[in-house]
């Protein structure tokens, strides 16, 4: 059954197929020209994904057009009426102009033109926003970032209206709105415009795209090279400085998808209008790499929640819809089509048309999610993020050994996350924020983002003397980065080092996702080595998602009263619910998540303990989610180790009421150190063993030999993994 919206598009194509709408030359075509619009109109009925996207755009816009037009004098900060109304107006100008091109319906053009003329009347009358406070002020919005975003959308709308605007209207809009707007972004707010930061990127994109449409090369040049046109700032400098050679953005994937939008939209507009810049090949094609990196930094369609991240953001965000459509148009990579199909929408653009055509022709192939290292820093020398995946991509281990990540970074050097069978198993809190929830302080970052989410104890990493890395100081943390010593996609393992988080303390973490014929599922190895000349308390938290089902010994439990784990650096937010003394032996804790069991087997020295903690203390506004953690604690030690393996096993079926293999197959765990060589020996049911051999040296060609219990282990390089059946003996 054809919807009314789709029917109007088809009728428009029939009536206007030879009319002036498509008889004229294409518009400048930032992302859509009139020839592509005709193609969309003629083919939309045969392209379900495109039809869905056009209908969704029309449905939302029609509802907005049914209310009174309002272009209010700016008054409110973010989330307030005038702020939200100007956002919606800008989006409506873009959508109405696009739908005019696609449907030929004059009412859309009339609406967009009327809004533009209202803004041309308002803009000369207003000054800097009254509620800018600590932000660099915009005029329509309280921070200039929002003004830049608004113009990125509006200039695309203006571009689509050039065949209906009269010369007098064009002159008025350019004189009263577009040119003064560019001046305010690039001259009056030159500090933001020339900043190497995503705020500067949005401003450069807005100014550059306006230049492309107005035919003003000066605007394009300053957008690309900065106000002085010397290349020390501007879009090209931002491409050079804000992404690593692998396309990783230092603030993490959540902010990468946001920062990606102005990069890919302006770059695609530039590529179409002034292809001589060859922008998608600039710096070894890093913009395309950034799109792929954003996709790869996800699991089950959700981004890894590194740094300040809202955990329900994923591959279906509008920014990545743009990225995927643009990347496919440039590469014709059929793996991107499967991502687009999961997004269930395309951009109403020439690139979106290509994607919809390919998906309708069933050309998509699975996207290749594989183990990868994403280096951090403009030169790739500021650590990185390792993503280790199982062969079937059902399991993913993420190890973060990157730089601080600017103001949105967390104090989580050498932290890790683990995903399996569609679920987050070893978790990261992400950001303490309820985005756009007015009753939660207007949707801004909550106080607990600083007191909990950013603190080291909130992550799966080492905490020394109950103090966060770098004592929780951003400036100090930004001076250095962690180091990736070894990354092996062959062994599916990584070794990372942090030497600056605590004075006089260095720690190395070796982690691997070990796939072996001895087990049905991969085994996560976690070996941390700590070196210090003085004694400390070492805490190694593990934030697990699920319900405890087994503990190898009975812990002491706080039944009637609870105390917090500490008074600051995030410890004040954790209730101490139980504790288990460990005396030089392996302990085991099992939890259930989804329909699988997960067992942490950990080897701790004498006088250690496992603390059982629950988040939620000192939370007067109930802002924090109630989540659970284990804290492995060693006290009064200099050099030491934490050795653990995490096993996924069994099955729980609540519908059919059966349980399979709820207990771990790991029966023993040993750690043997001989000078600069070590072995981790994992004994399984039936006597089989997995042995991980490690050398301090990272020389890939160096030979090593270590004898233990009558066996000799020989290997080359930093790491090796051996499998021993029960018949091998010891």
Structure notes:
- This protein has 730 residues and is of the alpha+beta class.
- The model is unreliable at 13-26 (pLDDT under 50).
- It starts with a helix and ends in a 6-residue tail after the last strand.
- The chain has three domains: 1-185, Chondroitin AC/alginate lyase (Glycosyltransferase, Alpha/alpha barrel); 372-664, Beta-galactosidase, Chain A, domain 5; 665-730.
- Helix 3 packs across helix 5, helix 13 crosses helix 14 and helix 15 (318-331) runs antiparallel to helix 16.
- The protein has 19 helices and 30 strands.
β-strand amount: 25-35%
CATH architecture of the largest domain: Distorted Sandwich
Report strand order across the widest sheet.
9-10-11-12-22-19-18-14
Net shape:
elongated
Q: What percent of the residues sit in helical stretches (DSSP H or I)?
A: 25-40%
The structure class reads alpha+beta
Distance linking N and C termini? 71 Å
CATH topology of the largest domain: Beta-galactosidase, Chain A, domain 5
**Mean pLDDT over the full residue set:** 94
Instruction: Supply Rg.
Output: 28 Å
Number of domain units: 3
User: What kind of sheet is the major sheet?
Assistant: 8 strands, antiparallel
**Please, how many helices?**
19
- Count of extended strands: 30
